[in-house]
């Protein structure tokens, strides 16, 4: 099995361990606690940096060029944005729950 990725996992040790364990279930006995020595010499991982590749190419890799583009939102996208924005608390970016007559704790009939 060959797995190729520029971003192989989310940074959590368990995430990386799960990928290694697909290749060799015995390589990392404890996915929460391990060291590079546990898998380094087993031929499971090849880690290459941009500098390593550039050296092998014997040429400089071109710098990444970003070309931002403005694309206006469609009417449905604007509507969705306004819906989310109107549900936000004025002091935070967390949506607030809207209370309706059917919401728990509300009373729709007098007792």
Q: Work out the radius of gyration.
A: 26 Å
The rough form would be described as flat
Order of helices and strands: HHH
Count of helical stretches: 3
First CA to last CA: what distance? 68 Å
Mean pLDDT: 76
Q: Count all strands and give the number.
A: 0
User: How would you classify the helix and strand content by structural class?
Assistant: mainly alpha
Helix content: 25-40%
Low-confidence stretches: 98-111
Largest sheet data = none
How much of the sequence lies in strands comes to under 5%
Distinctive features:
111 residues; mainly alpha
Detailed description of the structure:
This protein has 111 residues and is mainly α. It has a domain of 41 residues. The longest helix is centred in the C-terminal third of the chain and has 12 residues. The radius of gyration is 26 Å and the shape is flat. It starts with 12 loop residues before the first helix and ends in a 25-residue tail after the last helix.
